Amino acid sequence: MAEAKRNQRLLKDFAEAQRLYRDRQFSIARKRLAAYRAGIDYESFPRQDRRPAEQIIHSSVVLVSYGSGQGLLDCLYSLRKQIDPHFEIILVDQGGNESVHAELATWPLLWVCPPINLFPSEGRNLGAHFARGEFLIFLDDDAIAHEDFTAQAWFGMHQTQALALRGRIRPRSPDQPTPAPPPHYDLGEHPCLAPANLEGNLVVRRAAFQIVRGFDPLIFGHEGRELGWRLHQARRHGAFADTPWRGIYYWPMLQIRHDFATGERLATKRARHALGQAYLDTFAPGAFDAPERMDPALAELTPETLANQLPGPGITLILRAGTDLTQTQRLLTSLIQQAFQRPIEVLISAPNAKAAVAMIRPFLVRLPIRVLSPRNLHSRQNLSDLVGLGRYASIALVAETAVFSSNPWPTMLTTLEQQAVVAGPGELAETLLLCHRWTLGRGFTEPLDTPLPQLIKRLTIGG
C-alpha cells in the first residue's frame, strides 16, 4: 500500500513537471522531474507478458500507443510479416485503445499499461526498461514496417557499428493528396551521418541508451535530437571508449510507411516542435548542429567512406557441389553465358577441394571463383557462416542441378529491390534463390547441407 501511494505521488510529480514544461518553466520542471525519475517503480505498472520465453532475440521493438486503435493493429500485422523472427514486441498502451483490447490480448508481446499517459518519451523509456534485445527499435504505433524492417535494423547496426540508426519514411497513402513530407523523412539512397531526428523509426543500442538514461521524459518534439546529442556527448567524454560504437547514421533501407500530419494535427505538431526547440536551446546547446560538429572525430566519415565498409553492390553465388563434379561443370558452363549487370563471385564448397580446383580452371577467365577448403568449412556449421565469406550484398544460392537456359538475373534483381527473397522463375523455382545478404545473417542456423528446396520454402513462405 505504501509503495502504491508513493508511486501515485511520483506520478503527480511527473504530471506537474509536464505542465511546467508546457508553460516554459523549464528549470522548475526539471527539478520536479528529477524526483519522479529517482523514485518511480516501473515494475509496479500493470502488464501482461506473453513473449515466447525461449525465443532468441536481437532486437526489442517498442511501440508507445495512445488512441491508435486499428492503426496499432495494422502496425502489429506488419511486424507479424517480418522475414526476421529474432525480435520481441513491447507495447506501452497509454489509453484510448479499448476497442482493440480483445485482439491485443491474443498477441505474443509484452503489454504494459502505465497508470497515466506518460507521453512518448517516457513511454519509450518504460518499454526499454523491460527490453531484452541488444537493440531498441522505436516505431510509431500507426506505421507500417517494411517486411525486412527488423532485419535491416540488425544488419545496419552491425555494418556501421553505430550508436543509433534513423531510418526512412515513405508515404503510407501515396495516392492521396497530402502536404509534402518534411525533407528529413527521406535523406536519399545512401547511408550517411545524421541526427537522430526520426523518433518513430529509430534504432539505439540498449547499452548506450541505458548509459545516457534514455529519452528526456519532458520532451515531446525534437526528443530524438536531444537523445542523439547526449549520445554524442557521452562518446566524446569516453563513455563508450572500450567499444567500437560510433556515430548516428541514416540507414535508407530501414523503411516504414507513415503519413505526415495534416490540418489541426500538423499545427499541434509544429507547436510541440517550437516548444522542444526552446527547451533544447537552453539545455542541449548544439543539438541542432550537424553531426560532424557534435563529434568532430566523425567528420572523416562521408557517404562514400561509409559505403566502403558495407558489402558491395554485387552477387555472391554460393554453390554446394557433390562428389561428382559433372553437374557443377555443366552449371558453370551455362552460367558464363549470363549477363549479370553487376559484379559477381562464385563460392564453391566441395568434398574434394583439389578436384574442384582443377575443374574450375577453364572458367576463371570469365568468372571469379573460389573453392572453399574443407579446413575453412570445418568450423562453419551453418549457412550464415558461409555467407560471411562473401563480399557482396546480394546472395544467390544455386543447386548444382540448375541449368540456365535463359537469363533470369535482370528480372530477379529488379524484384529484389521490392522484397527480401526471390525464388528462381519457372524451371529454376527449386534450384535458385536470390536474397539480401542479411537474410542469411546471424540467427539463420540452417546446416550447410540443408536441401535448397527446403531453404526456398522456409524463406519465401516462412515454412
UniProtKB/TrEMBL annotation:
The keyword Transferase applies. Keywords: Transferase. SUPFAM superfamilies: Nucleotide-diphospho-sugar transferases (SSF53448). InterPro entries: Glyco_trans_2-like (IPR001173), Glycosyltransf_2 (IPR050834), Nucleotide-diphossugar_trans (IPR029044). It comes from the Bacteria. The keyword Disulfide bond does not apply. One of its GO terms (molecular function) is transferase activity. Signal peptide: none annotated. Residues 60-159 form the Glycosyltransferase 2-like domain. This is Glycosyltransferase, GT2 family. The lineage of its organism: Bacteria, Pseudomonadati, Pseudomonadota, Gammaproteobacteria, Chromatiales.
